[in-house]
Design a protein that fits this description.
single chain; 1 helix; 96 residues; alpha/beta
Length: 96
């Protein structure tokens, strides 16, 4: 197995682990990736009630991100991207 194939396999494994744990995994020295931290990805066609991307009772610490792709929000429906009493972030966020 070559290095390129091994890197592809490890990248797929990391992607599956990130989806499973809802946590971005970034290793030391990976400056091109966003820092480790919780994330929420939602792709929804129609919201008819309430949708929340991320919610914490007290604190979300570190870099946290919510990505919502919603086609239609029905009348009276609500969408919340992130909700927390405190959101702590690192001193600088990565550029997009």
């Amino acid at each position: 197995m070559g290095n390129a194939e091994l890197l592809r396999m490890l990248g797929r494994l990391r992607g599956r682990l990130e989806d499973l744990y809802g946590q971005r995994l970034t290793f030391q020295g990976e400056e091109y990736r966003q820092p480790s931290g919780p994330f929420s990805r939602q792709k929804i066609h129609t919201v008819q009630g309430h949708v929340t991307g991320m919610h914490a009772d007290d604190t979300i610490s570190g870099y946290a991100e919510t990505d919502q792709d919603i086609t239609t929000v029905a009348e009276g429906a609500t969408v919340t991207g992130m909700r927390a009493r405190n959101i702590g972030s690192p001193p600088s966020r990565p550029e997009r």
